[in-house]
Design goal:
The chain has 6 helices and 8 strands. By secondary structure, the chain is an alpha+beta fold. A 4-stranded antiparallel beta sheet has the order 1-8-3-6. Strands 2-7-4-5 form a 4-stranded antiparallel beta sheet, with no helix packed on it. Helix 1 (6-13) packs across helix 2 (24-31). It is globular.
Length: 141
């Protein structure tokens, strides 16, 4: 698949909850900080205990979140995101992530996410709201 253009990244972000309320100028600024990556079906994004330095946004595909014994916890689809909580607590990953099918991800590094938050604190509030809504699901992690 061909990497997304800057404007395609911005329109994608508009569909992802932490970024959906941002105006186009801010979306473009965030989009400049995103890295595009492709994973094959069955390929691991990261493993339990791995150092955490980025969050992931699913453009296309499906990612299974697994516990430390590699048992499935839940599956995420396009427009979902994951890996954000480890960026804030600076702890190793408390779960693993594996692609169920060929998957395209955009990633945002810790430093870029913190830069985005300093420019637009509403992103932090939105991330907290998303996190709080999923506490029962994330409590297993």
């Amino acid at each position: 698949m061909k990497p997304l253009s800057l404007i395609e990244k911005a329109f994608f972000l508009k569909r992802v909850k932490p970024f959906s309320d941002l105006d186009l100028d801010l979306l473009l600024a965030v989009s400049e900080k995103l890295y595009y990556d492709e994973y094959d079906a069955g390929e691991r994004v990261f493993t339990f205990g791995q150092a955490a330095n980025r969050m992931y946004l699913i453009v296309r595909g499906s990612v299974e979140i697994q516990d430390e014994m590699m048992r499935p916890l839940y599956t995420l689809e396009a427009n979902d995101f994951f890996g954000d909580e480890s960026i804030f607590n600076e702890q190793p990953r408390r779960y693993g992530a594996i692609c169920k099918i060929d998957t395209e991800l955009l990633t945002l590094s810790r430093s870029h996410l913190l830069s985005v938050i300093s420019e637009c604190p509403s992103v932090a509030v939105s991330l907290l709201q998303c996190y709080a809504q999923q506490i029962p699901c994330r409590a297993k992690l």
